[in-house]
Specification:
The protein is built from twelve helices and twelve strands. It is α/β, with parallel strands linked by helices. It has two domains: 205 residues, inorganic pyrophosphatase (n-terminal core) (Alpha-Beta Complex), CATH 3.90.1640.10; 148 residues, Diaminopimelate Epimerase, Chain A, domain 1, CATH 3.10.310. The protein binds manganese (II) ion.
């Protein structure tokens, strides 16, 4: 097993002599369990050394499982909307599970003169930030890096402390969810999970992992089932109009469609009405096909806007896209709404069919 004590040592020396400081822990705009647990870990480690922290993000915590996680584990994330960050409030920013490229707060932190103290991440190295300290490792979950620090003395976990149990549970959830239930886990992730195991709250972990679906989500899954078209292992489903608050049901519906025996790739999309009056087609792709490459699949299928940005992209087994409607946005009477959806639905499906090379005419079930 690799000796990681050096990294933990240099991380701890970074925190030395910083008593009385206040750090902003920066999460990506749409924080996931890995990021949330890392932020929580940094907070408790820093607290031990007299450093105050705020855990902040600039977007939205969506997906009911993530909302359940922060509620059940009592993790108080702060959302920083669009306004400026007051200067003099923070001595430094610490980026966990990101390197600033998936964060809309970086320019505002710069404007407020907040220096980047640390970047702790497991994504491929990017050059957006120039932090004092960085630890970027090839590991399944960033939570495993924070756990590695803890196991090397950053924090002495005690089962008798409820906060420590909540932290261990959060990190375990981060590792499990980020590695697809350990399928993509690397040795350090297993070491971290083994270290955390004695401290976790099993019941709480179960509760976070087994969030029940809301009625709305069930309805959207039903529509996705009804409207699905399957061709050569690909399953496409347009689900019509939905409110922006139900947007998270789209990836959940795609997850569900992927469970059908003959399906290796599922794409679900719908017309989302936003609170500011605009509309867009939002979609999610899920695949079990290792060779597919969601990023290029979506870019090739849907192309890009006139200004040259792609409508979508993704990572190894998932992706998403958003196509703004622009001039066609806004509430219409039933007939026009129907026409509008039908036009987009057919156009999108056609683009995917072209990409996978199947004949559109064979569309009739
Ligand atoms: Mn991560």
């Amino acid at each position: 097993m690799e000796d990681t004590s050096k990294q933990a040592e240099s991380f701890l020396s970074l925190l030395e002599g910083r008593e009385g400081e206040r750090h902003a822990i920066i999460l990506q705009d749409f924080p996931d369990p890995d990021a949330i647990s890392c932020a929580f870990a940094y907070r408790l480690i820093a607290e031990e050394r007299g450093i105050e922290t705020d855990m902040v993000y600039g977007g939205r915590v969506s997906h009911q499982e993530n909302i359940a996680m922060i509620n059940l584990l009592d993790i108080d994330l702060t959302e920083w909307g669009q306004g400026p960050i007051p200067s003099g409030q923070f001595d430094g920013a610490v980026f966990v599970d990101n390197q600033g490229t998936t964060v809309n707060l970086v320019d505002r932190l710069d404007a407020a003169g907040v220096p980047s103290i640390a970047v702790i991440d497991h994504h491929a190295k990017q050059d957006r930030l120039k932090p004092l300290y960085q630890d970027i490792r090839v590991v399944g979950a960033c939570a495993s890096i924070l756990t590695d620090y803890i196991s090397h003395g950053a924090l002495e976990l005690k089962s008798s402390k409820p906060e420590h149990r909540r932290l261990a549970t959060a990190l375990m959830h981060g590792i499990i969810s980020e590695t697809g239930s350990m399928i993509t886990a690397l040795p350090l992730d297993f070491t971290a999970a083994a270290f955390l195991q004695p401290y976790i709250d099993n019941e709480l972990l179960m509760e976070i992992l087994h969030q029940q679906r809301s009625h709305r989500v069930m309805e959207i899954i039903r529509m996705a089932l009804e409207n699905r078209v399957i061709r050569e292992g690909y399953c496409f489903s347009g689900i019509g109009y939905l409110r922006s608050s139900d947007r998270d049901a789209i990836p959940q519906a795609a997850d569900f469609l992927l469970t059908e025996a003959t399906v290796h790739t599922a794409v679900v999309y719908g017309m989302v009405s936003h609170s500011h009056g605009g509309e867009s087609i939002n979609g999610s792709l899920r695949t079990t096909e290792v060779a597919l490459g969601p990023d290029s699949f979506l870019k090739d299928s849907l192309g890009k806007t006139e200004s040259g940005s792609y409508y979508g992209g993704g990572k190894s087994n998932a992706g998403g896209f958003a196509i703004p409607l622009g001039f066609l946005s806004g509430k219409d009477d039933a007939e026009l709404s129907h026409l509008k959806w039908k036009a987009y639905d057919e156009k999108i499906r056609k683009k995917f069919f072209i990409k996978i090379g199947v004949d559109e005419v064979s569309d009739e079930e």
